[in-house]
Structure formats: structure tokens, C-alpha cells
């Protein structure tokens, strides 16, 4: 199975990446990698910008290209060799993946990343994938620019963002662009059936509910907690009758976000702390010597930022689910012949559609969009969620 099989419904992107991998392979065998302009005008580039809406699989596409570059099999991206398998499992030491845990990528983190980009790989290429390059501030991007402009012959940068406008024009102009579209529901379902072994029926429902967001669809199909969270969120949103319900509902959503963050961060926090203690030769049960306290404080700061990010992501996810509920309400109100995203909530959708107008539904959708923006900014999440839920109550 080729590493490119994971690109659900993206035939054009697949063709582009396969061509690039083949060109890189040809260059590696015919041209000395040290020669200048080793990669001119070819299908291969040392800087890539993968764009597409969240869930379209942009970082998976980047990983697939990385695997094909590192591949030692006969066809680049064979999916069978050690390099392919470790790259797709995110454990190939030559392929560094930058996941943001804070709300932004810091300048310091980027500087050390640039430093590592000059270290020769043990395999064919040093690949650096930045998953949320849109979380880099402008001055951080400047640190990166030089490294992308003149990379050593063995380094390939891959930036992933929702749209090309999310990175500075100076960076954008130096990258080969790969743009992913939202895959069709059927393609996402096919992918889940083949890669996660869920039933076709379950895969279709999850793909529909996730509106083709691959990661979200996979979570809904395979993680009972994610499915439960969606149901609880939609129950809250569909049963708001007054301000009291909204306040109560917001408190419940915040609690769910807290619990989710705890589950997803606690285990990792602990092992990171143990790992740090080990590397410093400190007994972590005992007193931490003053000399290394700063390092522990730094770790705690990072872990705290991660919890904040996980919580925000959870709440944003909940808002997208609520948005899709009111999208279904509008579809019902105007009698459009479109499938409901939330078919399992068809009764509630009909009830809300019957007691309100299209204009009111659209105003509610606007309020949800505003709440998402405020959440992305620095507003207290509880206030943003509360205000949004209040605006969902039935109007006169
Ligand atoms: Zn391979």
C-alpha cells in the first residue's frame, strides 16, 4: 500500500506529490547533491506550502511526501520500507514534525528549529514539517525566511496552513504550493473503512457528522468520548429556552472541556516530567535542586499552555458542531434537498425550524461565528460560550 493512499479524494495532489518524489529520486541518483542548483525547475522543491481547510489532510499529505523522499523502496512512497513506515508513524528521526502546543509558535522554538535544519540527516533528507505555520507571528516568520531561502542541499521545509494568505508573501513566494480541497463524504468514509476497520455505515455517519473533516470523522468513529461529547453539545444547543439554560449549558460545556483536556494532557505531562527528571539525574519524588528548578518551571509553563490550547480546540469543535446544527435548521426551513449533517438530531432540527424564521437562524449562525472569533482572541472562554448560547434562545 502506497503512502499516498491516505490522500482521500485528492487525485490532483497525489499526482503532484508522486511527480515530486520521482524527480527527487532521479536527482539523488544522477546529480551530486552538493552541486549548486541541484533542484532547478523540477517537480521537486525544497520548500512546500500545504494549504487546505482543517481536516482536509494537509499535514498527512506533507508526511506522505516526506515518506516518499525518505523511502528506500523501489517506488518512492512504497509504504513498506522502514523509512516509509517510521515517517508515517511520526517516528523517523530525519523527519521533524512541529506540532504547536501553545496558541502561537515562539521565536525561540523557531530559532532552534532553524539550527537543526543545518544538521545532515542519517537518511536521504532532513524534512521539517510545521503543522500550524499560521500560528507563527510575523517576527517568527522572519527567522524562518533565511533558512527557507537558502537551505542546505539536504533540507526540505513543509509548512501547513489553512490558506496561502496565512503566511507572509515573502515566505509564500519561495514555496511550492499544494492545495487540498475538502474531500467528499464518501472518500472520507472509504478511508475510515480501510484504515480504521469501522463498518461502512458507521464510517459514512461519522464522515457526514464531521463534514468531511478527516481527523474529526476518525475520532467520532473510533473514540466513544468524542461521540459522547458531540451528542452532549448538540443536546445543550438544541434545548436552550432562556438565559438560565444558556448559563447552565455554558458551565457544562466548560466542564466537559476541562475534563477532556485533563484526560488528553495528564498522562503526557507526567511522562514528560519523569523524562526531564531522568535526563537531569534528579529524583523527582524528592526536593528539586535550585540549579534545575528553572527547567522544571519552563516545562510546567509549556504544559499549561498545552492545556489551554486543548481546551480552546475542544470548545471550537463544539461551536462547529452547533453551527452545523443550525445549518441543518436552515436547510430544513428553506426546504433544500440536501442531506442533514446531524441526521440523528432530525427531530430537534425540525422543532427548532418550525418555531423560528430563516433570518433568526442566520442571526444565530452569525453569533456562533462571532463567538469562535472571540475564542481565538483573548476573551474569557466562559463569557464567549455563554454569550453565544444566550443568542440561541427562541426569539419572540
Ligand atoms: Zn518506502
Which helices and strands appear, and what pairs or packs with what?
Elements: H1 11-30, E1 47-51, H2 58-70, H3 82-88, E2 95-98, H4 107-116, E3 126-130, H5 138-149, E4 155-161, H6 169-172, E5 176-179, H7 185-196, H8 200-209, H9 214-222, H10 224-238, H11 243-280, H12 290-333, H13 346-355, H14 358-376, H15 381-390
Parallel strand pairs: 1-4, 1-5, 2-3, 3-4
Notes on the protein architecture:
- This protein is α/β, with parallel strands linked by helices and 396 residues long.
- The protein folds into three domains: 3-179, Rossmann fold; 185-222; 243-390, no CATH class.
- The chain is built from 15 helices and five strands.
- It has helices at 11-30, 58-70, 82-88, 107-116, 138-149, 169-172, 185-196, 200-209, 214-222, 224-238, 243-280, 290-333, 346-355, 358-376, 381-390; strands at residues 47-51, 95-98, 126-130, 155-161, 176-179.
- The protein has a five-stranded parallel beta sheet with strand order 2-3-4-1-5, covered by helices on one side.
- The termini are far apart.
- The structure holds zinc ion.
Number of strands: 5
Examine the secondary-structure arrangement and name the CATH architecture of the largest domain: 3-Layer(aba) Sandwich
Oligomer: single chain
**Sheet with most strands:** 5 strands, parallel
CATH top level of the largest domain is Alpha Beta
Rg is 23 Å
Give the name of the CATH superfamily of the largest domain. Answer: P-loop containing nucleotide triphosphate hydrolases
The overall pLDDT, averaged over residues, is: 89
Overall shape: globular
Query: In percent, how helical is the residue content?
Result: 55-70%
Q: Can you count the helices?
A: 15
In CATH, the topology of the largest domain is named: Rossmann fold
Are there runs of 5+ residues with pLDDT below 50, and where?
A: 35-41
Separation of the first and last Cα atoms: 58 Å
Main sheet strand line-up: 2-3-4-1-5
Listed once per kind, the bound small molecules are: zinc ion
Number of domains: 3
Order of helices and strands: HEHHEHEHEHEHHHHHHHHH
Strand portion:
5-15%
